[in-house]
Amino acid sequence: MRFLIFGPPGSGKGTYSSRIEDRINVEHIATGDMFREAVKKDTELGNKVKGYLDKGELVPDDLVNEVVRERLKETGMDNFILDGYPRTVEQAEFLDDIVNIDALILLDVTDEIIIERLSSRRICRECGEVFNKLFNPPEEEGVCDECDGELYQREDDKPKVIKDRIDTYENRSEPVIHYFEGKVPVVVNKCRKADASIEKMVESIIEQLKKRELVS
Ligand code: ADP
Ligand code: ZN
User: Fold this and answer.
1) Any idea which ligand is nearest the CA of 60?
2) pLDDT profile of the chain (216 residues), mean per 10
């Protein structure tokens, strides 16, 4: 199965997909994680994207498209959940040309929740696992439950940048939903609580995928 998970920054795309990955046979592919990894390793790609990431701006389409194309090849073009891509209609058109998507999982949250969650979000420097100081704290403050790595706050999770990212999402990314509507099933998951249980949300997403016979 080939899924897209879509929603504003802070909607839980990464958190839910890393758990969905463990439950059904799909590989979680997150462009944001790939870029942060490249920055950390100081690769050529990392150097190209760092400025955009820090400012919360979109990386140019051509660059993202190439990275995704190469990464998808490694999966044999199947059994993946794409998180953070496509983020523009141009990217959606590119993706649509190289692979057929089976469903779009749409995370519907309010701006208030986004701001509340992003400002308290912490990421593992080593494995990228996502925690939240308020809603999903690690067992030991500042330390990753998975790998004992150090937790840090993303540059783009600082208040000044959060607003720009929400604007970018509304202007550039929301049209992607309309692009796929009518082409593929859209599974909407509504969340109106910043501290909604992760397990419950994941259950509800999987339940809906089963109902539509998208997973067995
Ligand atoms: P979030 O969804 O929380 O904003 P991500 O980890 O998905 O964060 O992305 C972080 C940053 O990586 C984005 O702000 C952007 O700079 C870059 N990025 C990730 N995916 C894309 C994409 N598909 N197109 C352009 N830029 C991207
Ligand atoms: Zn870790």
Assistant:
1) 1
2) 96 94 94 96 98 95 98 97 98 98 96 93 94 94 97 93 94 97 95 90 95 92
The amino acid that residue 189 corresponds to is N
Is the Cα dihedral 201, 205, 211, 215 positive or negative? negative
Protein residues with CB under 6 Å of any ligand 1 atom: 9-10, 13, 31-32, 35, 52-53, 56-59, 64, 84-85, 87, 91, 156, 165
3-state helix, strand, coil split of the chain in percent (to 5) is 50, 20, 35
Encoded tokens for 37: 């990894």
**Of the options 3.40.50.300, 3.30.70.1280, 3.20.20.70, 3.40.50.150, the CATH number for the domain spanning 2-109+170-211:** 3.40.50.300
